[in-house]
Design brief:
5 helices; five-stranded mixed beta sheet
């Protein structure tokens, strides 16, 4: 092709040299030669254009797009729903006195560990104690009178009514003293479980009332996370579902399972509650701490590919380009797929592609179905 072009150019130059003298002396001949040369130039340009067109058709290798591909893999795909949760504890309570009275003693300090049944504080019980002493004296006399009346009654001396009256008086005083003992116990603040005194609200000498909290006691060995989940996921969330919990404030992550699923749908936000029990042996997880909760609602084994490889056509169908190689020629094939789930930048494919299919990666948006490509090695 280059030789043809060179010959044409040389011919024009020779012809021009031969006619040089005539052109310089005869205007008519000059015009004729100009027209002839112009016609020859047009013919050469046309010939060059045809040659370039044929070269473009024959020399296709240099213009093929260079692309990369990723092999589809088979594995276990898990999908999670992401919600917020709050840490709570069954053993984190504010203790109120059962009866009102002046605070005589507070036996514990904030941060102190206590045992179940330990006395934490004492209210002034002088009035109750005086009543107990008085009833004890009356009860002693009533017991003596009853015992004497019972001996006489066995000997058929005296009336039955006298015997019953003595018995009723003794039993009534016994009930009275038991009631007073119960009141005396209520003048003490008792630890309901093993734990730590978190905060003491009252002070010695102040008046304690049942309506006001006296102190807070907590046990952080076992806490739980409570979350509200929209009713849309009710059929997928069950007791035992896998849960991933993250505490951003602590930079801590744990794995657990749902311990309980609520049986009530909140009409205000159309959600139900889920409880996740967690162990807290190091006591770093505190009540009311916020948690990011991921609950697994789907798990399946199948084809998994990066989500960015999936495209959507004008009809709304999902598809990928699969690279097929035959006789050393690689072509792309538009393949419709079914995307079951998508999570964490991965898509779970249930239909359309097989394991180890080469999915077009770089260059996927510059080709069309059945285009020939050059597959680069990654």
């Amino acid at each position: 092709m280059k030789n043809i072009i060179s010959i044409l150019i040389i011919s024009l130059l020779l012809f021009s040299c031969e006619k040089k003298e005539e052109l310089s002396t005869n205007t008519t001949i000059l015009k004729k030669e100009k027209a002839s040369l112009k016609k020859q130039v047009d013919s050469i340009n046309k010939l060059l254009k045809n040659i370039e067109t044929k070269l473009a058709k024959l020399d296709t290798v240099k213009k093929l797009p260079i692309v990369t591909a990723i092999a589809s893999k088979e594995g276990v795909f898990k999908h999670y729903i992401e919600i917020q949760g709050t840490v709570k504890s069954d053993k984190s309570v504010e203790i109120h006195p059962e009866m009102g009275g002046t605070i005589s003693h507070i036996y514990v300090k904030e941060g102190q560990r206590v045992r179940r049944g330990q006395t934490l504080a004492q209210l002034d019980a002088s009035v109750v104690n005086n009543n107990i002493a008085q009833v004890k004296t009356q009860l002693t006399l009533a017991k003596t009178a009853f015992e004497r009346q019972a001996r006489l009654w066995k000997q058929k001396i005296g009336s039955e009514m006298q015997y019953l009256q003595a018995k009723a008086q003794k039993e009534g005083l016994e009930q009275n003293i038991n009631t007073l003992y119960a009141q005396a116990r209520k003048m003490k603040i008792i630890a309901p479980f093993n734990g730590t005194i978190d905060e003491i609200f009252a002070k010695t000498g102040a008046l304690a009332m049942p309506q006001q909290p006296f102190l807070r006691i907590v046990n952080l060995h076992k806490v739980y996370v409570e979350s509200e989940i929209t009713e849309t996921y009710l059929k997928n969330i069950k007791k035992g579902s896998e849960v991933l919990i993250s505490f951003p404030s602590l930079d801590k992550k744990i794995t657990s399972k749902i311990s309980q699923v609520g049986n009530f749908i909140n009409p205000n936000n159309r959600s139900f509650k889920a409880r996740i029990n967690i162990n807290n042996y190091n006591k770093v997880i505190k009540p009311n701490l916020l948690a990011d909760v991921k609950v697994k609602d789907f798990e399946g084994t199948g084809i998994i590919i990066p989500s960015y490889l999936v495209q959507k056509d004008q009809s709304g169908n999902h598809f990928v380009y699969v690279v097929r190689t035959k006789d050393s020629i690689s072509k792309v094939q538009k393949t419709l797929i079914t995307v079951e789930k998508e999570y964490n930048n991965e898509s779970f494919i249930t239909k359309g592609i097989q394991k180890n299919d080469l999915i077009l990666d770089k260059g996927a948006h510059t080709v069309k179905d059945n285009d020939q490509v050059i597959l680069a090695k990654q």
